[in-house]
Queue: 2 jobs
Job 1
Amino acid sequence: MNTSALHARHRAVLPDWLALYYAEPIELTHGEGRHVWDAEGRKYLDFFGGILTTMTAHALPEVTKAVAEQASRIIHSSTLYLDRPMVELAERVAQLSGIPDARVFFTTSGTEANDTALMLATAYRRSNQILAMRNSYHGRSFSAIGITGNKGWSPTSLSPLQTLYVHGGVRGRGPYAALSDAEFTDACVADLRDMLGQTRGDVAALIAEPIQGVGGFTSPPDGLYARFREVLREHGILWISDEVQTGWGRTGDHFWGWQAHGQAGPPDLLTFAKGIGNGMSIGGVVARADVMNCLDANSISTFGGSPVTMAAGLANLSYLLEHDLQGNARRVGGLLIERLRAIAAQVPAVRDVRGRGLMIGVELDDPTRAVAASVLESCREAGLLIGKGGGHDTSVLRIAPPLSLTVAEAEEGAAILERALREAP
């Protein structure tokens, strides 16, 4: 069956709102390293990694071997039984999290991880009031949509939570954009204090992405969330760091995104997903023991922490640490960002190049989003896959390849992107 026929079947049986990239969508059939192939046999350099999920490499032998060996023994048991791979991965994640006396609960996605964090915070604080950042994205569930500050990903205004949106997640837009970094931070802290002065009762938590993923890889100045943390502590409010996209060393400078704001200590809760499974469905929450253990009702997870996904996570995390992929993200990502900034200086359509490590956003002067669509198509035709995002009136190309990217591959991808940007309408 050809790809166009598969596309017709897709449209006939799946929701209209289930987005597909490209005017003629592609079917990816296999991958290796930083490359994937489609059903027509075309090879692509992958600069998006299944939405920041293929963290180390496609078809990484260490991960595929661990999955196959575990699947040959037992695939599923649920959390009602002891699960050695789950305990071993939880031990490693707890130690790496930086949260003292940490407990770990595994889920199947980042959305479910954020749901769990919200449940824990609201139960612990006995409040349904949540602070969230403007332009944010935290998942597609009912509660996660209720705290999402990006209208393009928020299909309903109904919510079980009362959400109050705070300034600070976007440095280059809004009433504080013209301020210096220090002035920007001071203004956002003052806004937070003012907002808390208008709330009734106790606020449960602030949830924030250190770098906003879907929102276009935007971020505040380093240290802003540390300043927020000081204010939150005065009121007993918890801090949830959504590390679904920023975790595991992708930013290069830090293993977790919160560490750029760590002057006031670690968050109370940390959520993760995507990269740890390298394509397998793993999410989770790390929290202080008193927060994690605050529930007074039974709970299990049917699929969270399954033996197969945990085996994959252990193998993937071991590979990441043993091969210093965080360091590679810092080195190769730094070169790539500078290369893209040099391109941007010569292309009027580019408004900004920002990011850290191998998490890079190229913001376009593109109110109709036609330029982004054109660039995506041109890159695909030339053998490069990238993503897109943005919030409000922005259009951003999202670049997040596997963390094992080589310098030669970075240069190859940058050259393709440069041609696409120069040829864009």
Job 2
Amino acid sequence: MTRDLFARHRAVLPDWLALYYADPLEITHGEGRHVWDAAGRKYLDFFGGILTTMTAHALPEVTKAVAEQAGRIIHSSTLYLNRPMVELAERVAQLSGIPDARVFFTTSGTEANDTALLLATAHRRSNTILAMRNSYHGRSFSSVGITGNRGWSPTSLSPLQTLYVHGGVRTRGPYAHLDDREFIDACVADLEDLLGHTRAPAALIAEPVQGVGGFTSPPDGLYAAFREVLHERGILWIADEVQTGWGRTGEHFWGWQAHGRSGPPDIVTFAKGIGNGTSIGGVIARAEIMNCLDANSISTFGGTQLTMAAGLANLNHLLEHDLQGNARRVGGLLIERLRAVAAQVPHVREVRGRGLMIGVELTRPGTDEAAPEAASAVLEEARAGGLLVGKGGGHSTSVLRIAPPMSLTVAEAEEGAAILERALRSL
């Protein structure tokens, strides 16, 4: 049955639509931190639909909210008042840390980043954007144009002029040998030099932890130091929190808070986990920025009643059950467990991450050369053992991406670590 579905998939869907595994997997249902395939096999899910199933599969509160809302009305567009949308926007604005915040809902992180770029370029009257090397911001024409990861950038054509800045990757590149303070100083100097060679940009867009790039991040405080340089010149800071938001990193509710010394970002984008699988993205910005557009706009599907009901129920569950604290505690245990394993596996160059956002970088033993074949082999072996993980990386890196639902238990973390250990040792 799965092979037949695969053949049908290939017949009608694009060749560039990526699928995991030599024998692709059809997931039919899930519960908690587990999913089942079409053959009835159970897996521990350590990737959550690309960090999207944030709280749990089939979370009762979300399921109930969606069913009740679907029984009333599913959709009306933004042309009409929408109580669930207003209620979720109020919660998000209050949690954002941005003064006088306004919220606009979209259907995805790509669309959220696209909107943020529209706002920043319109507000600043500039089409120049600063972005980080190794970054990923989506698959639309404009977001591909600022993505600093060749593997996810299918065209060099873009409506924007993009300039790439050092700093998103701590352990590779020309500044890797420096200590944290020196690393930040070198990246700031590079930014200041870059700004001396170009017209004033509209904004810097940056992921606090680079997701597709392999869960890489700079030392805490880098973006705060960048913010000081940008603020002097009126350049906006866009924090792409599509993967880092809602407490996943454990230490902070938003990833930007590790860099909050100079104040919050001007614009924050979010998506993925807030909907727990329903299609929610969004942009938070100060009123003067959000309201700068001088033409009408709507969103047909952004903020639909069904997704807003799901988002409200999911956010309430996350806050009431302190899943940020759970991500910090269980994620910390999982990272230490994996680091202990890594010390005995020559293919592992580094285990990095925060909370339940963990990367395991693989290289050819004794070198810094990427080992994509090893990453694929571990992915297959982990699946055979009953564990689903992701992979990523950019600029000749290969990384296993581990991001389970934030309700992961200690016992499940131990179970997943044991399966991953066997998969890594099988190399």
